[in-house]
Structures are given as structure tokens and as C-alpha cells.
Amino acid sequence: MAEVAQGQTESEITSSDSTITYPASYFIQFAPVSVSDMLDRIPGIGLVLDGATADLDRRFGGGDRGLGGSSQILIDGKRLAGKTNEARIQLSRLAAEEVDYIEIVRGTSSELDVQNSGQLINIVLLRAISRNSYSAELGLRHFQDGTIEPEGTFSVTGQRGRFNYLMSADIAPGYRVEESQELSLHPDLRLNEVINLERQIEQTNYSLNSSLSWNFGESDRLALNLLYSQNDPPSKLFREITDFNGVSPATSYEHERTPANSENWEIGGDYERNFDSGAKYKLLFIANDKSAGAARERFDFLSLGDTENKNLFLDNNGSYKEKIVRTSYTWNTAASQGLELGIEGAQTTQDSALRLGLPLGGVTSEEFGGLTPVNLPNAISTVEEIRYEGFAVHNWRINSRMSLESSLVAEYSEIEQKGDVNNKRDFDFLKPKVDFIYDISNAFQFRFSLEKFVSQLSFGDFSRNTNQQDEDKDTIAGNPELEQRQSWRYTANFDYRLPNDGGVLNSRLFYYDFDGDIGRIDVSKSLTELESANGNVGDGKVLGLNLDASIRLGVLGLPQALLTGGVLFQKAEISDPLIAKKRRVVPYDRGNIRLGFRHDVSRWNLNYGFNYRDGIDGNRPFWDIDNVLFIGSPSNLMVFVEKAGWRGLTFRFEAINALDHVRKQERRRFNGYLRDELLSEIERFYVTDGIRYTFKVRATF
């Protein structure tokens, strides 16, 4: 039986074979400008677009290796061959008037262009001999120091016969201003220092993006995805340091400036050949290059207006390159079964160089900021990984209610490091995966997944790098022996869709068993010079429960109001030999809560709402060899109001961090090893970046 939105006719929204279809006509009442506007009106869409149920290991630097076979968003049933340039970033650029219908696919099939472990979105565009549309968004963002930065997007979408295109240009503010205070306390809580800090990052993000596709007859299709972006992020910092250890407080100052550059380009391609038998051949490729550099210079002086003395020069430059090719052949082995066989090959290279200069009184060098060069071990490095994998994916539609997708990936890789350290290692992994889906009813679905997961290494951890977590330690040692973190992952998901498109209730229970978790290890040369690096520390476990609800408020007489909420509980534990105690598995903290509301008032072409997120207290400590950093629960409230009106323009106002949340952290430093528990200092941080206000004007023409 079809599921129907409250207040809509049954012919508008349909459900069959675990797929819910929303035609473009359903969204007319909301006056959408982009595909993002359309998706915002679908209950439970946040579950599909990751939200809180996203795999934290993938989000925090341990993501999928290579292209893989999964994607959450399809356009015309096809994935975009991209990593940085992927389908999700296209949603706000694709004009709503180009859409024929949107599908929420809750099942799996060999006819899909990707593996589907949960749910995915398929955006189907209109077909015409010739069509063209333009969309534009212009806005201004106001920051707490009074700075106003522009933002905007211009895109063109269209079709010329068998040629389809989407091209866009973006400018977005990456500007950031922070005010913070640090209280340094002795172990007996006597005041040691007070540091007031102002940090300003003058960053603007520019990008050019295009997705092009050609259909050569009914059987052949070629697509290209192109991206270029630049976001030079220079920053400056000012510290006021008051020392309370003397007879009277003494104040000194520090100033930092960090010129920086960053750019990225990516080319992705996708060729597909369909045969009369129903079989399909696919070829995907990606080449990308990311480069970035920053030169941090620090100066100290005793009073404002005095001569500044340089006491630090830290230059960090690097580039990251990928070349990936993936090819496969898919065919139906039986009426209800399909098989995909393929191979993927990849070359990943990271170059890094780190230079440190200090006022040590020796021979100086302009390449080290006019200071004395410091010899850093493992500071110049090139890391290259050559990886091959063969894969097989089997889809089986067991009956009208049950389906099973199973896959097996055999991976071989070679990682070689050259430069100050020369090292070569070989790895091989077998990665099975099973996804079972059972439609208990048209509305109620159960999904179970079992997967062997191997995380992507951060090659920056192989060589000495800047320390992003502790400003008192300028660099962190590299580890040429670092290995991939592996895990077995078990997930059970219950998804219930309320009648008449009234909402979605979802629960997700998961258990991860980690092997070779990554944390800090001891690489000290002596007991008086303690030093740590990222390394494999042991086995850990994560147990979690995520509950989500997305409900229309028709029972309250507000059928166009959508209330969303969720809560995530996680328990993560690992025995860490460095600190001689159990700790949480990073980045799996205790969890968070989410709450959102949107109300469309169609008769006024108006919508408004908010999104709120907060962490559960006690989140995410970072343990090191001689200190621990406790990070407070992050919180953010975003409120918005949007009005469609004059000459077809849409006006939107947003307040980001509307509660002006103050981020709180505490670091405890120890004499010698942390495990000896000889506390030497307590640092308490209070940081705010203020409320940001944004005003935008959007249009399609």
C-alpha cells in the first residue's frame, strides 16, 4: 500500500519494493530553490545523509580506502566518481526545477550502481531534448568582531540532447575569530598564569565544480567530474600572559603570524556499458592533488610598542595525491540473484617537509626564519602506497520481503617511506561484509550488517608533524611502523515509517571490535626527554545505541511542521599501556543529543525553525605520554527563517551558535610519565567564537 503525506493525495507519494518515491509536484507547496530544500522536507532524511549515525571512524580521518562500492547519494541512479567532489556537495547547487522525482531506496539490488548497507537517495532529473536553468545565492556573514564576509554560489544545470551538465562556482567565508582565556594553576590550585588570547583566521574558500555526462545511445554512458578549490588560511594571534609567581603580577606578550596556502584539484570519470542481456560493465577513475603549507612565526615582547623578538619559526609543507582505477562486470546469475566481479588499483602519495628554527644562538638561516636551524629527525618524508584489491559482490532477493547482499574484498598493499627514514612494508587483508534486510511490513524494516573494516592511515603520522593539540609542544614525532586499524563491526537497525508519511522512527544498535587501535605510544630517547607518536596501542571495543525520530505534527494541527530528535549513547573501552589505565576509543565519546524543528507556512511562502546539538558530559579525553586533555561537550544552536517572495527571490536569515556557547577544556600536565600521576599543572581553557549572522538571497532563473 502506498504511503501518503498528510494533506497530500495518494497519487503523489508511492512506496514499493522498499522504495519511497516523492514526485517533484509534492514539493511545489514549499517553493524550493535547490535539491537541498526538497530533501529538508522529507521525514528521516537526516538518517540517510549521515547525521549522528555516521561512522565516526570514517568521519575522523580513518575513512574508506580508495573508491569502494558504496555511496549514499545517486543522481539518475549513478554515483559520482569523486572523493572531495562527491554527490553531497552538489545538492545545494542543483536547481529544484530540474528534478523529476526523488527516491529513498531502503533495499539492495544488483541493479543499483552501488552497495546499499542502509538507505540511499536517488535524485532523478527531468529528461528533455534541450533544457537549461540557472541558480544563484548571494549572502553576507557577520562575525563577533564586526567583520562582514561575502558568500555566494552560481550554478547552471542543463541538457543538450544526450549531453547533461552541472557547473558551479562558489565563494564561502572560512573567516574565524576566537577569544579565549587560559587559567594555569599549580597542583594545589594556586594561580600560576592567566593567558588571554585572540586568534583570527582570514580564510576565504573558492571552488569551481562541474559534473558532465554523455549518453552514447541506450547502452553507453560517460561522466566526468571536475573540481578546483583554493582556500589560503593565513592567521594571526595575540597573547597577553600574566605571571602570578612573583612578588607582584608580571605581564608579557606574544604575537604570531602564520601565512598559509592551500589548494586542491580533482578529476573523476565514470564509464558504463549496458548489454542486451542485462549485464553491465563499469570503469571509474579518480586523480586528485591536495597541497598546503604554513609558516608559523612567534614573537615575544614585554610591553606594547616594544621591539618584538622572534622565538619560533615552524614551517610545514606537504602534498597528498591519489590515483585510483576501479573496474567491474555485473550480471544476473539467476532471476533473483546478481553478481559483480571487479578489481581496484590505487597509488597514494604524501610528501611532507618540516623546518624548525629557534633562538639558540648558533648559526642562523633565512630558510629557518632567521633563527638557528633545529635538526628534527624524520622531518622530510615521502610516503607511497600501492594498493590492489579484487572484489566480489553477490545480491540475492530471497523473497518479496528478504534480501541479502554479501561481498568479499581481497586487498594487497605496499607502503614505502623515503627521505630521512627509509622503510618498506607489505600488507594483505580479507574484508568480508554481509547485509541482510527484512521487510517485516511495508512500514517496518529490520537490517543487519556484519563487516570487516580496515581504516585508511593518515600518512602525516609517518613523519614528524606539527602538534595540533598542544601549543606548548611545537611538533610531534612520526612513526614509520604505523599499521592500519582493523575492526569487526556488527550493526542491527530497526526502521519504522509512520502511516501517511507521518514520520520515521529509527533505532541502531552497534558493536565494534577493534584490533590495533591507534593512540599515543612512547618513542622517548631518555627518561628526561619524553616524547610520543601516534602508533598501534592494542584492542578496543565500542558498544552504542542511536535513537532517532522525525515526526510531522499533524496531530497538533500542523501537518507542515516537522520535529526531529535523536540521542546517541556510546561505551568505548581500551587498555592503554602508555598511561597504564583503561580509556575510551577515540573518537567514540559518550554520545550526544539532537533536536530540530521546521515549520512551513505555505500560504505565506515562509518557513522557520532551528537545529540544536549538544554532547553528553564527559566527552572525549585525549591521553598523551605526560598530559591529558579533557574536551567539554560541544553545543550549537542554529535558528533560521526563510521567505520566498518578491520576483521569485528567496530570502534567508540564519543565526549560528545562537546561544554563544563557550567551549571548555582542561589539560593536566605531569612531571614525567602520566601513569606516575605526579601532577605539575592544571590548565583550564574557555573559548568562544561568538554568534555568526548570515543573510542570503537565492533565486532560480
Automatic annotation (TrEMBL):
Keyword Membrane: yes
A GO CC term attached to the entry: cell outer membrane
Keyword terms, alphabetized: Cell outer membrane, Membrane, TonB box
Highest taxon of source: Bacteria
InterPro entries (alphabetical): Beta-barrel_TonB, Beta-barrel_TonB_sf, Plug_dom, Plug_dom_sf
Chief location: membrane
Keyword Membrane tagged: yes
TonB-dependent receptor plug domain span: 19-110
Cellular compartments annotated: Cell outer membrane
TonB-dependent receptor-like beta-barrel domain residues: 216-619
Family: Belongs to the TonB-dependent receptor family.
Name this polypeptide is given: TonB-dependent receptor plug domain-containing protein
